[in-house]
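quick one, two chains, predict together pls
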Amino acid sequence: MDHVQRPTFEASFSMSNQSANINPNQLFTQFGAKSLSGGAGSGQSFHKYSQNLDFSSIWPYDFEQVVKTPDQVAPFANNQMGQTVDWDPRAMLSKLFFIDQKIHQVQDIIHSTIDIEGQFSIQPNELAVKQQLVTTDLTCIISQLISTVGNLLPSINDTLLSNISPVGKIGNTVGSPSSFALNGTLQQNEDFSLEKNVVMQHRDLIRSSTDSGDEGIKPVPVKNHDVKVHKDCVDRENLPLGSYEVLELKKEEILAPHTHFCSICKKGFKRSANLRMHMRGHGDEYKTPAALAKPRNEASSEPVLIKRYSCPVVGCKRNREHEKFQPLKTILCVKNHYKRSHCDKSYTCSRCNTKKFSVLADLKTHEKHCGCDRWLCSCGTLFSRKDKLLGHVNLFPGHNPASSMGDVKASGGTDQGRKIEMITEIDSLEPNFPGNSVDDVDDDPCYFFPLNFDSFKFEGLNDSP
Amino acid sequence: MMRTPQPPDLIMAVLSVDLLVQILDRLPDSGDRKSFRLVSRGFLSAEALHRRALRVLRREFLPFLLRRYFALESLDLSACPALDDTALAAALHTAGGCQGLKAVCLARATGIRWRGVEVLVAACPRLEVVDLSHCVGIGDREAAALAAAGGLRELRLDKCLGITDVGLAKLAVGCAVLERLGIKWCMEISDLGIDLLSKKCRDLKVLDISYLKVTNFCLQSVSCLEKLEDLTMAGCSQINDEGLRFLNNGSNSLRSIDVSRCNNVSTWGLVSVIEGHKCLQKIVAGDCFPELVPLFLTKLSGLRDTLNVLKLDGFQVSATSLQIIGVHCKNLGEIGLGKCRGMTDECISELVTYRADLRTIDLTCCHSLTDNALVTIADHCKKLTCLLLESCSLITEKGLDHIGTCCTDLKKVDLTDCAVNDTALRCLSPCLELMVLKLGLCPSISDKGLVHIGSNFRKILELDLYRCTGIADGGLAAIAAGCKSLKKLNVCYCVRITDQGLKHLSFLEELSDLEMRGLVHVTSAGITAIAVGCKSLVELDMKRCYSVDDAGLWALSRCSEKLRQINISYCPVTGVGLCKLLGSLRCLQDAKLVHLTRVSVEGYEIALRASWDRLKKLKLLSGLRHFLSPGLLQMLRARGCRIRWVDKPESFCLPFSLLL
């Protein structure tokens, strides 16, 4: 364990130092004393940070407060100034040397993992930690490279600093949680310099991977964090890993009809307001305005840990042990998710008798539109919306909207019934239709006098009415 | 009996069929052709061999005609009364299919439904052009039947109210080679349908989406049509500049664009269209935005070599703006400036000094124009063919004198409401090519003026004398003597006209359209003369001819075989005459029968039953709605007849029938 941890720790420390003061060489030559103190300061404030790390990206104001401690501001300012000064080839060289070193370190880590794998089986957790370290280092290298480029081309300095997109992109391609978090942080406080944030995130990660086990709720390490919109709860907030508390309710709790219980008579209620109304009957002390008021979170003054929920079913994507874990946002989301995904579908649509639902609201939504599938394609596919049908027709050559639209619109009943009706109607009409028409014409007397035809047609007047 | 066939055979020996066909090639006139085919059977069969286009006026002859004229390529059934699915199917059945038929016109054939369309498509495998406009009953089912004609290139569906996006989708899928499509007034069609159309029919060249409730999205899809040349979208009020900006990409080969009456389009939209298409030939932007901004005018200079037609009705114009147009648009042949505000003589002179080759100038309702404008036009535009000056009340014979002497190519002149007199007509007399002349609301014109018309304008086809109260029978005599090819004549409210005048008019054999409202001195004798003389009469309007009675209707029903549209409102006719009229006129399709005070409800009932199934449009007093039997109304409706109920109170004579 030690063998594995030490080089990375060293690396990350040096890295953090390094990236805080963009290039040590330059700083030493120009602001030697200051930067030293800044370095020491950052070392001291390390612990301070680690306490706030989890919220750093969600609570920008908090973060700002911490950053504005004097010893932190100093390197930040240096950093800014250092970039405006013309670039120094020596400084550049030292930077590149640093990057080179860094790459070697990463190589070492990977080698060591291979060695360990060869010797004895290691815990998957350990492997995950290693991978994380590698990605962290890689991100660091990339950010270093970018800052080097920024020094090379002073004209794009500003865009690099203010615009998050290049780093954001790189972060995404790396696909590491750190870069992801970095992105989130940057979006929230763009004013901060890039390197600063990188450092913060790295410390963050290092802490989370090394000092784990101290606290009860630990952030679950995650390798890939896909962001997708999900039915259960639209979760586009891009919370960085570990910035929230994950709670897991038991199955019985989820399925319980009542969530609020009277402490005296144990009666259950679905809504807290109903409970409060009920409590009035237990004594005058529950009738005060304070007792009847909606219990407010005192959280407005101090930051509260954001709560997210995990599904109790192991293996579910919404379970915290899943490697692509996506947390559920509220208790209601948990309930709906659990019912939809892990319970029987007990509600059946009374109209079509095929669709089944486990959440009553879903059934009601369906029943509103059930039987409205009146857009029929020639291939037999039914659509509930016209634009969907036309899109389908556009997609598949040879398909076209079926001809029964008018009839379907006019008559009621089920779809199949309508189709049959339509077909029989056509059948009954078509075969005898030409015959009928011919009979009609045979009755017409004019029809038999071809010789008279010209006089009829062109001299008109001779034609008797 | 034995001899009769001999002479034709002898002629045929001299003139072989191919020679006859050669002769027919040089016979454009329908009357000459009629004489030709009446010569003999041989001539008739030669004519049948030669004929490519046919317009049918009677349903009962349709099967026979189709069998005789087997080489037909174009068939026009728009004037065929009482045509329904059964009749069409039977005709096509007896003819054994029309293998060569390429174009069919079924406009206003309200009796045609999906079965008829289906049979038509099946019988004519080479069908390329179909016109179903104004068949208001046409819907998706008919569209589906039509979609089976895969080779369809041109399709007109104006005012087919029942067609929805689904119907259009079927057509788009079925007729992938469609090049021209008109879906004006198909109110059910939305963006979705147009979107699919533009994805499926990539060859579309001409598209008319006027008055549809389409939005900018539709233009986004239309802009991807690479071959699109002509886009008409008049009155699409939901389209604005952002939509037109989609046309900026220049990915289609637009030649002509019509955005008239699009209320939300402004100069910027048009500018973006012009930017995208450097070859625009026609811009119609009337009545959509009031200001001509300089940017638009400068952009027009980009189209200097191509722009041919520019219509800017209802704009605020100035001398400078018209000067810019005149200088930049080198190829301009037609300009529309109707109802333009700020139009002065100076504007006109600025325009025409640079554009001497203008052919058509529309100055309708430019009230402040004077003779000076006409003088400058006459001095510069020697090739002018069409000059519209309606309501330019300041112009006099002096200006027209210049026009007459300089612009001798004039074919169409509109002087409605210009208060011109006989001298002005004499001034126009050098314009021997004149075909259309409108002189409505010019009460100072007398018979002398009409003598000028009759003696000079021999080629005239259309003459409008609406409310020219100065004219009398003598003038009509001059017209009847001179203008032998006259087809349309309007003498409404020229109250001095009597039966004698109509007797003169009866010598106009070509006359097809006669409007004679409010001729109170005309009696049935005059109508009889018209009925006997004007064999080609198709449309007759004798509303408020208070002296015409049943005898006139008898004459019409006996002689006016081709009469298709009639208005006898307010005439003192009785039920018998009406019954005779509606019962015997085989081509009658449109009748206006309002305030016939002497016709009883029974009279209406019998007359309408006697009309059988030929009527397509009917105008009746709304009071009758409750008195006519429901069965009759149902039958009329089932035959595709549309009844318009009007609610016009007539102060002094209540409907006679209701008093009974």
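Residues 1-85, 154-199, 202-235, 405-465 of chain A have pLDDT under 50 and may be disordered.
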